[in-house]
Amino acid sequence: xxxxxxxxxxxxxxxxxxxxxxxxxxxxxxxxxxxxxxxxxxxxxxxxxxxxxxxxxxxxxxxxxxxxxxxxxxxxxxxxxxxxxxxxxxxxxxxxxxxxxxxxxxxxxxxxxxxxxxxxxxxxxxxxxxxxxxxxxxxxxxxxxxxxxxxxxxxxxxxxxxxxxxxxxxxxxxxxxxxxxxxxxxxxxxxxxxxxxxxxxxxxxxxxxxxxxxxxxxxxxxxxxxxxxxxxxxxxxxxxxxxxxxxxxxxxxxxxxxxxxxxxxxxxxxxxxxxxxxxxxxxxxxxxxxxxxxxxxxxxxxxxxxxxxxxxxxxxxxxxxxxxxxxxxxxxxxxxxxxxxxxxxxxxxxxxxxxxxxxxxxxxxxxxxxxxxxxxxxxxxxxxxxxxxxxxxxxxxxx
Length: 399
Known about the structure:
By secondary structure, the chain is mainly α. The protein has one domain. About 65% of the residues lie in helices and about 0% in strands. It has 14 helices and two strands. The protein has helices at about 10-25, 55-75, 80-100, 115-130, 140-160, 180-195, 200-220, 225-230, 240-260, 265-285, 300-320, 335, 340-355, 370-390; strands at about 165, 170. It has a two-stranded antiparallel sheet with strand order 1-2. β1 and β2 form a beta hairpin. The longest helix is centred in the last third of the chain and has 24 residues, at about 300-320. The two termini are about 40 Å apart. Residues about 1-5 have low confidence and may be disordered.
């Protein structure tokens, strides 16, 4: 029986593939005639389309990474309170970026002082200035100056923001937090839980079950009596987001346990059983709790996607950690090592595209049907390659 590795090399590859696919499906807005099954299902549809499984995979991967990230800091002698501070500051960064991004949706394209594309570029540049992985040899004063400049840009951009909602001018406000904000909330809840329960499998499984049942209770309307408190205190995503992340933590801890005990066959059996159980539960609950819906974060969507993620991760464990085939994915490696950079670069690209519209927009023949799908995939690949180029020049975000 082959020895299982002590480090989850498969996480980086799983993250790389997921990030590539996220960039790929996010580009469909410029395409015509994309097959319906590739896009997001509608809000009231009972369906699971390809795009609906990408975001939950990312949340699952966040969970996979948490035990190793925290263990690494503990091994370096970082105190628990300092690790907690790291978790909080990291979460705050994601929440802040998500807050700015979600307010792009209501941006007043006509009445705003700064045109939307320029505002979008400036906040993205500010994110890099504040959270860049600065060289350790850089002078402290220079680093603080650049970070201060980034903070100043964000403050100025917030000051000049002007949005519209139902024809009325509005300022920046929390809404659904955006992709990064949802990741930030899920990470905060799950990382804090893991920090205190550590590798206690029963406690981690208990937290996962709690979030799953919270999600079920919400959609079954058992928690309607708590509506007055929802404005002030609530588990983001009605338990769905932290459930996906906590599932990743549980799988990560179990994987390490099996690696330490060199029990490969048992691992396959346990992971397969968990995947099948969650898939079955998702389909059984489907008729009773709103069907399968990413937008409404229904229990069936959470459970089915978790089952898919466990099975997918098993494939990456076999390919990367056991067969050592990470070279197969070397081209897209930067999407797994500089993931936030890869996620933010399209915000600059699309802003530039809007500034020079329609000169930079490809003819419809390249954006329609199969050609459009190929174009979007090549676009995602280019973004990842550019991420690798700037990564080599030490330009990457570190949160």
